[in-house]
Amino acid sequence: MHFDTQLFLRALGLAIVLESLCWVIAPGAMHRMMQTLLSLPEQQLRFAGLTALIFGMLLMTLTNA
User: Fold this and answer.
1) In the structure, what pLDDT confidence band is assigned to residue 65 with cuts at 50, 70 and 90?
2) Cβ-based neighbours of 47, under 8 Å, separated by 6 or more
3) Residue 30: partners with Cβ closer than 8 Å, 6 or more residues away
4) pTM of the prediction?
5) Of 46, 56, 61, nearest in space to 18 by CA
6) Sign of the alpha-carbon torsion through 59, 60, 62, 63
7) What's the pLDDT tens digit per position in 9-53?
8) With the C-alpha atoms ordered 8, 58, 15, 43, is the resulting torsion angle positive or negative?
């Protein structure tokens, strides 16, 4: 298996761009969302993170087939 550094950096750059767009377009909504997330119990945050992780891995697997 060959690790493509250029592809990795492009994917990381895309993730940063998409993440930043939310803060540029709607900083107030992002601030409210962060406050809401801070009030959630750790177990709920962990479950949401695990769900996103599984979805991301599934998406990568399906697009790599």
Assistant:
1) low
2) none
3) 22, 23
4) 0.70
5) 56
6) positive
7) 999 999 999 999 999 999 999 999 999 999 999 999 999 999 999
8) negative
